[in-house]
């Protein structure tokens, strides 16, 4: 019961730290009880299968944490209208297992190499796992530790230097040092040593926050210009209305909303993810002939020197097996199709610019490692009224440039806004503000859409770019370059949000270097893993030479 209690204390501290309902300061000690549980079992317990007990208890901790923070996934609907147990079950079970595996590797390494080497390994492997979670096809970085301060932008202004992954490193360092302090106290009961370590802990926590407050209060970057943006929020039910309403009706209602809310000159109209066409998708080779998109061009003729950016569902056909992309699938002999979650920019007298979403939601937009898993799982894809196959992607980021002013928008589509280093690629391409097109209504009134909005603040700080966020029926918002929400809407409102967006052209240290501390941690992880092997080889060679 003692070990279960320690596991559940960690669970509680992790859960109550999480945005948007939590208090993040608990995160600095959240992993300490779990580390104590591992230490107690390894050193003092009479349990026969110690490794298995540690795995079970860590899995319990991470399972409850995942349920408490991402259980809102249950709000997703099956095609028959029932809540999707599968939508929450698979991410929660798999993610909890992966976190437990990371903790188990720490346990094995610590037993083999000792406590101090083990704690260094713990930080390195956790950081390595978070980096993996940002890059592979099973990507789910929602619970990366650095995200926890997203509701407190004043305290994390230094994320413009090391990003949210730097926040994870900070949190892990503090947790490990608190655990070290507890162990030193248990071993020697020396008050002087305890006071010294508590002071060091306080400095580790407070010093980055003090730097952040100074940066926040002295932020003086001068914008290179300002544009007027109208973010459209059509409140289109993604399960019913989107696939029942006539496409022309959906387009007409969107443009009516844009017209009604247009006050003076608008430089950018931004509509949400897959706002058009409704049911089906638009053939990309016929974009210029599409009735839906021609309607948008006609709208722009009434609003000269404006551009319209929106999310659409689109597709392409391929008739040559050698030229078809890897994610295209055959619909009949010799004909392949590839579907996309797309952002487009329309100018009244210009070509339509196109960007395909590159960070896809596992199980919904991409079948992870399809060549390996599909023979095992079959067509086990979550169908939220959209695609049931892996979508095509763009390998490089693109920027939508307004030909009438200085505005250069990063067309970030929904889930992509969770990825820090990924978003910096838009800025490197010249984006001077971030435009997020999202549809947060899949999960209903829950923590899901609130957390996704909150994470966008991190991207504003990391890149020092203002954000215009257009949501379908989530929360549309204007976020400044310090991560503050200046204006926003209510969930479920059919409305539009006007904002004057400041444009910035500088690059932060994080934009230039990305997840530097993650790469450093992976290097340390490699050293910790292979140094004993190299040392053994050198000894072996030395012994052979001596003989």
Q: Would you mind describing this structure in some detail?
A:
- With 547 residues, the chain is α/β, with parallel strands linked by helices.
- It has two domains: 240 residues; 213 residues, Nitrilase/N-carbamoyl-D-aminoacid amidohydrolase.
- The protein contains 15 helices and 14 strands.
- Strands 1, 2, 3, 4, 5, 6, 7 and 14 form an eight-stranded mixed sheet that branches.
- Helix 5 crosses helix 15 and helix 6 packs antiparallel against helix 7.
- The N and C termini lie far apart (56 Å).
In short:
With 547 residues, the chain is an alpha/beta fold. It is built from 15 helices and 14 strands.
**Run of helices and strands:** HHHHHHHEHHEEHEEEEHEEHEHEEEEHH
Q: Percentage of helical residues?
A: 40-55%
Class of secondary structure makeup: alpha/beta
Low-confidence stretches: 381-388
From the N-terminal CA to the C-terminal CA, the straight-line distance is 56 Å
Morphology call: globular
Number of strands: 14
User: Strand share of the residues?
Assistant: 5-15%
The largest sheet is: 8 strands, mixed
What is the residue-averaged pLDDT?
Answer: 92
Specify the number of helices: 15
How many domains in all? 2
Question: How many whole angstroms does the radius of gyration measure?
Answer: 25 Å
